[in-house]
Amino acid sequence: AAGSNTEILSISDPANLASVLTDGVKKTIFDSRVQVTYEPGFVPVAPPAMPDIPPEHLAEMIKGTVKVEVLDGNIGYLKIQHIIGEEMAQKVGPILLEYIWDKMLPTSAMILDFRSAVSGELSGIPYIVSYYTDPEPLIHIDSVYDRTSDVTIELWSMPTLLGKRYGTSKPLIILTSKNTLGIAEDVAYCLKNLKRATIVGENTAGGSIKINKIKVGDTDFYVSVPVAKSINPITGKTWEINGVAPDVEVAAEDALDAAIAIIKLRAEIL
């Protein structure tokens, strides 16, 4: 369509052209995740090799993306910006247990703050979900279809974990915003449909479980394309594109206060 549209081809500014092409793609395929960008200096970021970083340094990096606090009423508050994968969790496990989990376990209710969570690893999904479920029976949490390999990976709860589980009886609330993206959306959707967590906040971004950036020929233009799809075994649907709808809808900045009020109200009723 762009090739036959002389008006588009006459746009001289590459960034402006990328923006126009993105709008055209979105109107054609109705998928807001597909984007055309102009990035002359783009260098793909390779994840650091695990053995090259000492566990102490990894732990410091993780601490920079996590906030841990015990609020009034013995409510655990855990703010996460990046969901680490199983491999990294195993490597820095003892430090994570001491810094985070040992503070959370004795609490009587917990709030997971995903309002700023925009990145993560696929293997982190069963890791987090398993801490709020029973060891047996194992639960089919999610199925992820990878288009590039034409393979579907099933994610299941884990029978053994580092440290103790939070369990299934204590209240769990997940805070979301319109910026909550990707892996965090998957975790929220899984725990919501397992009836294990209450989602409080805004409808999430509706991102993708995995996006690849593909170079367009011999140019500095790139197309960001979803290359995998999450399909929840309970709903048979995905959270992608439409996002995760909250159980209690409030503005993101009011979500924490709303969550605390819900936990206190439940405690009074019980």
Automatic annotation (TrEMBL):
UniProt cross-references to Gene3D superfamilies, sorted A to Z: 2-enoyl-CoA Hydratase, Chain A, domain 1, 3.30.750.44
Biological process (GO), any one: proteolysis
A family per Pfam: Peptidase_S41
Domain annotation Tail specific protease: ranges: 54-251
SMART domains assigned to the protein according to its UniProt record, in alphabetical order: TSPc
Organism superkingdom: Eukaryota
GO function terms (MF aspect): retinol binding; serine-type peptidase activity
Keywords, comma-separated and alphabetical: Receptor
Classification via InterPro entries: ClpP/crotonase-like_dom_sf, Tail-specific_protease
PANTHER family: INTERPHOTORECEPTOR RETINOID-BINDING PROTEIN, RETINOL-BINDING PROTEIN 3
Protein name: Interphotoreceptor retinoid-binding protein
Gene: IRBP2
